[in-house]
Design a protein that fits this description.
Layout (H helix, E strand, L loop, with lengths): L6 H29 L8 H6 L5 H4 L12 E8 L8 E8 L2 H14 L2 E3 L4 H6 L20 E9 L7 E9 L4 E8 L1
Antiparallel strand pairs: 1-2, 2-6, 3-4, 4-5, 5-6
Length: about 180
């Protein structure tokens, strides 16, 4: 009349559910940490040498190491995860005027386009919407920066998807910013 419930069977079901719940929770937190942005500038060299960033985005553009005399160093690295989202690497620092001048000379030789954040071409193409990173998350890049497009390929007619490497310098602030993205 009544079906007898086996305590033994319930025990193993509870154990199995607990194990599956633990694995599921672990995977959620593991993936969360894997997609969180890395901001510790001490890890910069490791990120550059990791091979996870396409070489066409960083070679001969990003420094191999942050200069020893650099100050106000900021780093943001968001790796691509499981084929979703995009990869972004941003580095900025202040340095002596001679270092900034060397970067400006180098960027001018390699740039396919140079301008300011308010240039009509840049506003139309959406190129500089990318600079909402680091200290510029809220307001974008200040107007006293000169921006250099060093590499870029778009997937569509605008810069919403594709690959790009941009740099920006401000001699007044003695600051340089590097940005690479792949979407």
């Amino acid at each position: 009349m009544y079906k007898r419930i086996s305590v033994y069977g319930l025990y193993w079901k509870a154990v199995a559910l607990s194990v599956l719940g633990t694995i599921f929770t672990f995977l959620i937190f593991w993936n969360y940490d894997a997609t969180a942005s890395i901001t510790n500038s001490d890890l910069y060299e490791r990120i550059i040498c990791s091979g996870r960033i396409p070489q066409n985005l960083t070679d001969n553009i990003f420094p191999n190491r942050i200069p020893l005399d650099a100050t106000e160093i900021e780093l943001s690295y968001s790796p691509k995860m499981l084929g979703q989202s995009g990869l972004q690497l941003a580095l900025s620092f202040s340095a002596p005027e001679s270092v900034i001048e060397d970067y400006v000379r180098e960027f001018l030789q390699d740039a396919t386009w140079t301008g300011s954040p308010l240039d009509a071409v840049s506003l139309q193409a959406g190129i500089f919407s990318h600079f909402y990173v680091l200290d510029f998350k809220e307001s974008g890049l200040p107007n006293d920066y000169t921006i250099y497009v060093l590499y870029g390929e778009t997937a569509y007619s605008d810069w919403n998807h594709g690959e790009c490497t941009l740099a920006a310098t401000s001699p007044d602030l003695k600051s340089v910013l590097f940005l690479a993205e792949k979407w």
